[in-house]
Amino acid sequence: MHADMQDDGLAVDSPYVDLVVEVFSLLADATRVRIVLALRDQELSVNHLADLVEKSPTSVSQHLAKLRWGRVVKTRQDGTRVFYSLVDEHARTLVTQALYQAQHALEDVPPHHRAPVTP
């Protein structure tokens, strides 16, 4: 590595590659992607998330447990209620970029490249 290059873990021989694969595997589920999208700008309870992703609270709880294990989401307790939020902006960015890539696969000019419509 050149002396002027910062060691940011992005080298081909990065020790993080196996962990990256685990993150992709963790996010390779439509319900978990929807949970990340729902939590991108707010914290929510299990019941609220269940309503948003149209799954049972039990199913959402199981997905949230896996996302907690993967350090994608964190919890905050308020009395008897538990609220979930993203640990940091990276999962949101990762899912957003994957959605943008999917849009490119389906459309010549995907929505994220279109000029905003002004009233």
Structural write-up:
The model has no long low-confidence stretch (mean pLDDT 89). By secondary structure, the protein is mainly α. The termini are far apart. Helix 3 packs across helix 4 (57-69). The chain has a 3-stranded antiparallel β-sheet. It is globular. The chain has helices spanning 17-26, 30-38, 46-53, 57-69, 89-106; strands at residues 44-45, 73-78, 81-86. The protein is built from 5 helices and 3 strands. Strand 2 and strand 3 form a beta hairpin. Helix content is 49%, strand content 12%. The chain has one domain: Orthogonal Bundle (Arc Repressor Mutant, subunit A).
Strand order of the largest sheet: 1-3-2
Overall mean pLDDT score?
A: 89
Low-confidence stretches: none
**CATH fold-level name:** Arc Repressor Mutant, subunit A
**CATH H-level homologous superfamily name:** Winged helix-like DNA-binding domain superfamily/Winged helix DNA-binding domain
Terminal residue distance: 52 Å
Question: How many DSSP H or I helices?
Answer: 5
Percentage beta strand: 5-15%
Radius of gyration: 17 Å
**What is the name of the CATH class?**
Mainly Alpha
The helix/strand class is: mainly alpha
Main β-sheet description: 3 strands, antiparallel
Helix fraction?
A: 40-55%
Any chance you could write out the topology, listing elements then pairs?
Blueprint: H1 17-26, H2 30-38, E1 44-45, H3 46-53, H4 57-69, E2 73-78, E3 81-86, H5 89-106
